[in-house]
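Data card: per-record layout.
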Amino acid sequence: MRTVITLIALLAVVVAGILWANRPVTITISAGLPDEFPADGFSHRTFEALLQEYVNSSGDVDYDIWHASQQSLDQLNSYLAAVAAYSPDSTPDRFDTRTDELAYWMYGYNAYVISGVLSNWPINSVTDVKAPIEAVKGLGFFYRNRYIFGGKAYSLLHVENEKIRARFKDPRIHFVLNCASESCPVLRPELPTGNELELLLADATQKFVSEPRNVFIDHDKKVIRLSAIFKMYREDFINHVRASGRPVSNGVLTYILDVAPDRLRSEIEKARDYEIEFSDFDWSLNNSDALEKA
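The structure for this 294-residue chain is written out next.
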């Protein structure tokens, strides 16, 4: 019995040590609000202008040039100062609709991801930003670091799971949220709000499934190879199908059939009996082509 108690005590000490070493680190933003930030509502214009300058046609980011521009870094910080000051939780009067709320959480998440990369530049992957004891890949970047949204500090993991996925239950967000990695959806430089956000979600979803790297049908091997995102968030896609009252026996394939363009849908229909495989997640940084070739 004494040996068991000793082992339990040692285990408790080890766990406590890991928790202390990996205690949260809050990242604060020291900047004023963007110029001409509205007295009412919430403007994403500053962040949108930066994306239009530094995101190429493939959806990749030129972090090197962005990092070299102090003015652009200051502009990003000013946008994040607004994210830190206001949120649908702290100032609900600034967000007229649920789509405005969703836009805030998604765009704020993406902005903090980019800020995290630039703050640790140069890196080859967000997984290079490690916790002292990195028990899970990405722990340092997505969980240990905490960012301010509307006066409260959250991890990016919390924002994704609790503020976005749990609240809005829309699997299309997985085609807009960007984790600065090659297997993520491409970063889009347009940041619509209100009714126009619906168009963005629909377009981003269709373009994601239309990319061969995300949905590839190998008729020779009788295999459908899907993006790792469909495996990581399988329940979100399954629950969407289930909510429509349809059977979920075909898993995520039913969801993909719902959102795929006609030509891809026809190909999938021919391959319904194929084996489904999932690609490994590629954590390589979503650098622009210009940076990769430099």
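Known properties of this structure: Residues 13-17, 290-294 have pLDDT under 50 and may be disordered. The beta strands are 25-27, 145-149, 152-155, 215-218, 223-226, 275-278.

See the next section for split statistics.
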